[in-house]
Amino acid sequence: MATNVVTTSADEIPRGDLAGFKKYLGKDLLSGFLVFLIALPLCIGISLASGAPAQAGIFTAIIGSIVTSLISNSELTIKGPAAGLIVIVFGAVSQLQHDFNTDAYGAYRLMLAVGVAAGVIQIGFGLLRSGILGEFFPTTVVHGMLAAIGLIIISSRFHVMLGLKAPSPNPLLNFAAFPSSIRDMNPEIALIGLLSLAVLIFFAMAKNKTLKRVPAQMVVLILAIPLGMYFSLGEDHTYTLADHQYTILSKDSVVNLPDSIFRSMLSKDGGLLPDFRALQTFNGWKWVLMFSLIASLESLLSAKAIDLLDPWKRKSNMNRDLFACGIANTAAAMVGGLPMISEIVRSKANIDNGARTRFADMWHGVFLLAFVALFPGLIHRIPNAALAAMLVFTGYRLASPKEFIHLWNIGREQLIIFVATIIGVLATDLLMGIGIGIATKFVIHMMNGVSPWDLFKTYLDVQEEPDGTCLVTARESAVFSNWIPFKRQLEQIGLVQRNNIVLDLSNTKLVDTTFIEKLHGLQSDFTAEGLSLKITGLDSHRTNTGHAFATRRRGLIPLRRITVTADTDLEETLVELFVSRGATGYTVIPCHGAGKSELNVGLPAVPQIRFEVVVMPELAEQVVEVLREQILPKAGVTVVVETVEVIRFGAFVSEQGVPSQPAHH
Q1: What is the value of pTM for the model shown?
Q2: Could you tell me if 268 and 105 are in contact, meaning their C-beta atoms sit under 8 angstroms apart?
Q3: What does the pLDDT look like over 553-578, one tens digit per residue?
Q4: Per the CB 3.0–4.6 Å rule, which of 135, 280, 321, 354 could disulfide with 72?
């Protein structure tokens, strides 16, 4: 979708208060409706993939959107069930079903008790101002966790998209079963699933701005529901195609909902109410911990990402938002809902649709409530294959090959951490996988010379300059694990005490990717407050790539020294050649000498110059090519190119836009 560009003065910044509710009613109502069109099928699909009743995700979105809109000040986030939590819910349902030897319905009620406890813990996180904990986790590890979740979703929903069931809870076994599922697929159901996937891919690749504003998920339903009716997916029957007989069972082919969604909460021995026996077991509390940590982390990261996209640059109070999510999660679990978070895809759509305040989120919940109250029969006609296709597409976006390429471009160690996290999650579970990713990052840091103690401690020296600027000098390490105390000190000196800061990192042994990325975000906070945070000293560190977020290690920086021995009349030509292309300095040494041809005929040495320049590797390649093509054919010169190492490369970087630092291989 094309993001709306909005310009407004500071006194026109939309706020989610009573005045904002009235003033922006039209825009928020429209955006809420458009987000509802996306949310409806996703809520149902996420529920089914989680091993929950189809209506559970709808309960979550309704309660989450209305409750959090009244408590949180996060203006543009959309609250609801998320694909990233499917793995946790399904894992909890499966394990509790085994532990209590119950059916899927009973296991889901046990899982609801886990959801209630996790919601209460989230409330505690908010009250204890624990929103800052979202800053601890390395960016690469979080991306690895999400990519692993995407792969797990694909491994199970791919089979459902083809009209079959996932053969195993193990994602690796599910991937291994892809060929057999393709061979044994149910053609009519697979046609709906593959067509749905094709529609989603088409809309994702579309360049037309008008077309990109159309909710692709709703287009899928417009095509899939009539096809499902044509193939009679709502009725049990068999059909024959190419001498093969296929069976269609309504309960597996379309969404199954009770006649009254809301009465279902109070039916069948407690309806969808929590069974708190789950909290009497170790495994129950293990899932409580996983729910509260992962859901809180995902929600905080999504809220931060949406704040960056907010046209008015409004900042969410993360502790307040976490508290609101805890209240909503507790309420949703009490009536049969799934865990909910700030959902990134629907939130981005909310921005693109022109929402102004958090009441757009509330309206999307109101539309969901109205739809399930007035048209429950239409939901029953949605083919499960279409919903599975939506989740396969979502899983692909979470684990996109572009993510692997992006991390490789930042640095090879980032890709190692990313892949280690993915393997850890696939081989164990989410918490263990995250732990493996963080442990891998710690090991890499220690291999780069950081002591275990310095991974968590900050060493900052503060000196006030004559102009009132504070010079903050960091020592030892600047990495993800000491970012929180680092950030607090910078905020205290700068944002609280209202000082401009110059941060000198030249004395640090290591500055990692997560730290650099978060430091850039803090720079934006300073700018928004009319202050400056200037970063210096990184030119004494080396990287494996030239990426802006690449990890920096203190050490000698490899550059190129080009030495040209030539006749004295070429001096001006050489100066022009190098300086015009970005060289920041040069040295000319008068000398005299004779070449091979002079020695052969006995001629004496002639006056010459020795022209030396140290430049970036990219510039060296350009200049050598020019020397080869333009100078060497016309004059007798000698050119020598050597790799040299310098302490600080900043003196050799032109202000003309030469890359920030040479890559070291």
Answers
A1: 0.83
A2: yes
A3: 988 778 899 999 999 999 999 999 99
A4: 321
